[in-house]
């Protein structure tokens, strides 16, 4: 039973329009703003105030439409809502504007009156209604966090976002305005914010895997009563969201671990083909054909590797090129792929986009970035990834370049020589290679060429005109003397840098130009 008149607190048009169960209310004509202390149902024959809701359809003829509007205005009402009011003629709409009567269309007038009652008299009822809808949303299984947020958004009829201090992590519905995000107080458990016509209710997410998150319900035209009710609804949603984050993070960690193992297997092949590795890469959608640009984000100090991987993966979605990012120890190793040869301007745009990712990441994390050169095919993918990894190791100490090193811009050999040629590295290199310098100089030369040729026994043998067994024996002997495991990429890089430093110093002493020797490969 609908009461003929509801009166207590005021109801404003913006709040009604933003109410998820307003009977499909739409503004048709007249003032687009309004606030009413009374809502009357089918009582237009008596004097009244505020909003008049007709359950009967709006008249279809122009003279009847005009007559109804004049009668509503004469009896003191400032707004009229009726089914099919959107069919009002142009003249009727102008009359509504002239009379100052807000004309509204509603498909379900009973539902509209109930929404008015909730906003005016039954704040607890509105809250309970939101809570009931949240509970119903939980009945539908969600495969991930995005699915859960979409279910909740559909249930309560308002936009939902998961945010941190830097911006939106994920959202369902509309886009959270930056100004509204900046107005949200992250300190209290529950907070609300208003910027113009936009409003948000938020609650801190109690997550064990991700800190600093808030769940936000937001939209335009939300009144104070709705905002308080939505704050409670957000608090009810939060545990399910936190649980979903944990489930997704565990799945992400497992997937990231599998991805890291697969990428390591691929790199260890050094360009050779392996059907099983190819099959696993195909299942993940990893392109090996085409053209690739490798990159690696490396922390300068200890950071949360899971959080770094999440952050990089999220940032890469803003780059309009196929991209992949895989955890690699504490770093994130990845690549961009192109089906066709990219133009030089495209490569430059991608490098600039990666630089932009670095700059945003450095707002919260102390990381460096290495970018490899553009390469093609499977062997090229291996090469650009190795270049990116080596470049990132150099970038962590190059503040002058913004902790960014691009192999194709400066040339990795120049960077290595610039780094290894300083006064502090050369003594360290001499100490590392002391067993070879003092007793077996031929091993030093063999080892240096071996590392220059990407640890290839055959390529080293060809370069030195030696038998491959001789090279293999010398490399093994050198490894034993200096006590370094060449299966470790970090050890290989350190040893390579040391060899380059020593050989460059010897060349300088004998007047040999670095370009006269075998180049870094």
Structural account:
The structure is a single chain. The chain has 521 residues and is α+β, with helices and mostly antiparallel strands. It is 50% helix and 19% strand. The strands form three sheets. Strands 1-3-4-5-6-2 form a six-stranded mixed beta sheet, with helices on both faces. Strands 8-7-11-10-9 form a five-stranded antiparallel beta sheet. Strands 13-14-12-15-16 form a five-stranded mixed beta sheet. Strand 15, helix 12 and strand 16 form a beta-alpha-beta unit. The longest helix is centred in the middle third of the chain and has 45 residues. It starts with a strand and ends in an 11-residue tail after the last helix.
Tell me the distance between the termini: 84 Å
Helix/strand-derived category reads alpha+beta
Morphology:
elongated
Largest beta-sheet details: 6 strands, mixed
Mean pLDDT: 85
Number of helices: 20
Which strand-content bin applies to the residues? 15-25%
Uncertain residue ranges: 1-7, 513-521
Secondary structure blueprint with pairings:
Elements: E1 5-12, H1 13-18, E2 26-29, E3 35-41, E4 51-53, H2 62-74, E5 79-82, H3 90-99, E6 102-105, H4 109-120, H5 123-137, H6 145-156, E7 159-164, E8 167-172, H7 178-183, E9 190-195, E10 198-204, E11 214-220, H8 224-268, H9 275-283, E12 291-299, H10 305-316, E13 322-328, E14 331-338, H11 344-361, E15 367-376, H12 377-395, E16 404-406, H13 407-410, H14 412-420, H15 425-432, H16 434-439, H17 441-452, H18 457-464, H19 468-482, H20 489-510
Helix pairs in contact: 2-3, 4-5, 5-6, 5-8, 6-8, 8-9, 12-14, 15-20, 17-18, 17-19, 17-20, 18-19
């Amino acid at each position: 039973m609908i009461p003929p008149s509801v009166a207590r607190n005021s109801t404003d048009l913006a709040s009604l329009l933003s109410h998820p169960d307003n009977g499909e209310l739409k503004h048709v004509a007249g003032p687009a703003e309004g606030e009413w202390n009374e809502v009357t149902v089918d009582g237009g024959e008596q004097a009244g105030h505020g909003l008049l809701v007709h359950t009967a359809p709006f008249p279809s003829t122009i003279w009847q439409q005009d007559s109804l509007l004049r009668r509503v205005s004469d009896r003191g009402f400032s707004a009229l809502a009726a089914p099919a009011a959107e069919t009002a003629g142009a003249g009727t709409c102008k009359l509504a504007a002239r009379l100052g009567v807000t004309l509204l269309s509603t498909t379900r007038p009973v539902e509209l009156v109930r929404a008015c009652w909730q906003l005016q008299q039954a704040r607890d009822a509105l809250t309970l209604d939101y809570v009931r809808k949240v509970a119903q949303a939980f009945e539908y299984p969600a495969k991930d966090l995005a699915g859960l947020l979409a279910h909740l958004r559909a249930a309560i009829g308002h936009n939902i976002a998961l945010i941190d201090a830097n911006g939106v992590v994920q959202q369902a519905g509309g886009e959270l305005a930056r100004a509204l995000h900046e107005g949200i107080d992250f300190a209290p458990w529950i907070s609300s914010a208003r910027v113009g016509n936009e409003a948000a209710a938020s609650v801190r997410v109690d997550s064990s895997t991700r800190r600093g998150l808030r769940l936000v319900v937001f939209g335009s035209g939300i009144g104070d009563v709705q905002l308080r009710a939505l704050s409670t609804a957000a608090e009810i949603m939060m545990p399910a969201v936190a649980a979903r984050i944990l489930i997704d993070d565990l799945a992400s960690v497992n997937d990231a671990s599998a991805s890291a193992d697969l990428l390591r297997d691929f790199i260890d092949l050094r360009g050779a083909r392996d059907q099983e590795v190819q099959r696993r890469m195909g299942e993940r959608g990893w392109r090996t054909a085409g053209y690739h640009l490798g990159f690696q984000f490396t922390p300068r100090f200890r950071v949360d590797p899971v959080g770094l991987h999440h952050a990089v993966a999220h940032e890469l979605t803003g780059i309009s090129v196929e991209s992949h990012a895989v955890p690699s120890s504490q770093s994130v190793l990845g690549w961009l792929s192109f089906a066709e040869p990219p133009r030089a301007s495209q490569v430059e745009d991608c490098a600039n986009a990666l630089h932009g990712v670095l700059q945003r990441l450095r707002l919260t994390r102390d990381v460096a970035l290495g970018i490899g050169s553009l390469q093609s095919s499977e062997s090229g993918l291996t090469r650009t990834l190795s270049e990116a990894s080596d470049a990132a190791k150099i970038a962590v100490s190059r503040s002058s370049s913004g902790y960014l090193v691009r192999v194709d811009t400066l040339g990795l050999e120049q960077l290595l020589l610039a780094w290894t040629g300083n006064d502090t590295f050369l003594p360290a290199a001499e100490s590392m290679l002391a067993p070879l310098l003092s007793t077996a100089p031929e091993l030093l030369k063999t080892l240096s060429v071996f590392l220059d040729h990407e640890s290839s026994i055959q390529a080293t043998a060809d370069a030195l005109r030696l038998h491959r067994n001789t090279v293999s024996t010398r490399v093994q002997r050198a490894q034993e003397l200096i006590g370094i495991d060449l299966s470790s990429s970090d050890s290989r890089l350190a040893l390579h840098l040391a060899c380059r430093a020593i050989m460059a110093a010897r060349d300088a002493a004998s007047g040999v130009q670095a370009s006269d020797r075998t180049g870094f490969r």
